[in-house]
Amino acid sequence: MLKYFFSMPGRQLWLDLAIGLSQTSVARPCLWIGDPRLESGAQNAFPDCEVADFDGLRYAPHLQLAASSAENLSFFESPDLHRIKDNALKMMDRVDPDKTWSRVDREAAFHAAALWAIEKINRLRPDFFLTIESPHAYTSYILFELCRIYGVPAYSFGWFPLSGGLYLRQGLNDAIIPYTGPRDETVDARMWSFVTQYANTVTAQTTKAWEPSYMQAQKAKDASADARFLSYARKHTRGKLRRLLKPSKYFSVTEGYRKEQAKRAFLSGLRGTLSDLTTKGLDLERPFVYFALQYEPERTTNPDGLNYTDQIRALAALRDKLPQSHLIYVREHPSQLYSSNRGHLGRSQTIYHVIRSMRGVELADNEEVSSASLIRNAAITATITGTAALEAALIGKNALIFGHSWFSGCPNIADFSNVASFEDLLQQDTADADTVMAYLKQRFVDFTFPGYQNPSQTGLYPGLADDETYQRAELDGALHSVSTDLIAHLKQRTAISS
Q: Residue 36's CB: how many other CB atoms inside 10 A?
C-alpha cells in the first residue's frame, strides 16, 4: 500500500476519502496536516499516522522541532529558496491579525517549518503528497514545495468555482489529469446550470454593475454589521463555539471584539486613502487596459499566481511591456474593503500610493465606475487569476492572466508569460461567447467531478451541496480521482523517470 502526506480543509468528506483509500488498499496517510476539526477523527482512523498539531505548527513551529533532527538540507541552497520563502512569509499575514510578527519572527518561523518538513520527508518517505486546496497556509505550502524539491510528487485539487466541481492537477501548474470516473447526468446538468446562469448574467449586463453571489453575501454582511458587543457575539458565536468547547492556547476568544474594532478602524483609513487617490471621472474613451486587483490574502494570488504572487510585480511588468499609448486603470476588489472579510491583512495604505506612482497608471473609484464598465471599454482586461478575465472573454474581449486558473487556456484569454507582442494582442480577433462556453463545457466534462473544497463554499450552490445524490457523487468522484487517475499518473511518471 502506498504512503502519502495529506493536507485538507475541515470537511468530513476528506476524512471519508482517506478512509476509503485505506479500506481499498490503495494508499494510507503517514502524515496528516490540516483543519483541526478532523484531527481526532484522523487519529482514531489511522493510529500509525502522524497527525500534526496544525494550530501549533502555524503559531509555534519551533515547538514541533524538539524531538527531530533534520538532515539532507540541500533546500537551503536551492534556487527556489527565495521564491518559496517570500510566498511563505506573505502567507503568514493570515496568522498575524495584530501585525506583530516582525521580519525576523517570520524568517524564524519559516526556517522552523522548513526543517520540520525536511525531517518528515526524510523519515517517512511518502510516495506522494495530496492537498485538497492550493496550499495557502505557510506550513502546508512549505511542505508542498519541499516535497517537489526532494522528489516527492505533489498533487492538488483545483476548484471549478462556478459549477461546484473539482479537478486533479499535478503541482500548481503542471499536468491537469483527466477524470475517467462515472458521471451522473442529472448532477452534471445541475452543476452546469450554475455556469450558464453566470454566463447569461455577464453577457446580458455588460455595462451594468453586478456581483457574483459570494460577493453579494459579503457585502450584505458588511452593510448590516455594527460595532456593539452583543451583535458581535451573536454573529460570531457559531465560529467561536468550537474554540470555547476545545480551548486553544493559540487563540483568545474574548479578545475578538477588540480586534474587530481595530479592523474596522484600519479599513476606514484604507477606504479614505483609496478615495483620496482615485481619479474622478475616468475617461473610458481613451485606450486603456483594465487591471483588476484581487482580494488578498487568498490562494488565488498566493500561490496560484505562480511567479506573480505579488500583484505590484504583475502590474509593473504589464506597464513595462504595454505601449505608452495605453493607460492602465486599476480597480480595487470590493471584498478587500468589507469588514466581514480579512482584507485588512492583505493591504497597506501605502499600496495605493505605490500604484499611483507608476506613470500611466490610475486608480478607479469603485463607486463611480463598475468592473463591468471597465471590462467592456478596455482594450485588454488583466488579472492574476480572477474571473474578470473570463467575463471579458465572454463578451468577446481580450484578457490576460498571470497565474494558474481553472479557465487557463480559454479562448480570448492569454497567459502573460506567453505574450510576445502586445501590439499583436491588441489587434487580435476574438471568439464569441458560444466558443468560450464550448471550451468551458469540454473542460468540465474532461476534468471535473462533483465536489467543493471547504465548508465556506457550501452557500455558493443553493440546493446542490445538501443534495444526497450530489454528496454521494462527491465521495465517489474523489475516490476514483485519487485511486485510479492519480495512481495511474503516478505510475506513468515513475516509469518515465526510471
A: 17
Q: Provide the 8-state DSSP code for 484.
A: I
Helix pair angle (81-91, 138-149), 10° resolution: 160
Q: Is it true that the peptide bond before 297 is cis, omega within 30 degrees of 0?
A: yes
Q: Evaluate whether 214 touches 178 at the Cβ level (below 8 Å).
A: no
Instruction: Check residue 29 and give its pLDDT.
Output: 98
The answer to whether 476 touches 470, Cβ cutoff 8 Å, is no
Q: Between the CA atoms of 51, 54, 59 and 60, what dihedral angle is there, to the nearest 10 degrees?
A: 0
pLDDT in the model for residue 218: 57
Task: Spell out the residues 6+ positions from residue 357 whose beta carbon is closer than 8 angstroms to its own.
Answer: none
In 10 A of CB 421, how many CB atoms? 11
CB 381 within 8 Å of CB 411: no
N-to-C CA span, the chain: 20
pLDDT of 458: 82
User: Quick check: 160 pLDDT over 80?
Assistant: yes
Task: Provide the whole-model pTM.
Answer: 0.89
H/E run at residue 474: helix 468-480
Pairing verdict, β 128-131 and 154-160:
parallel
The three cell numbers of residue 255 are 479578545
Cα R_g (the chain), whole angstroms: 23
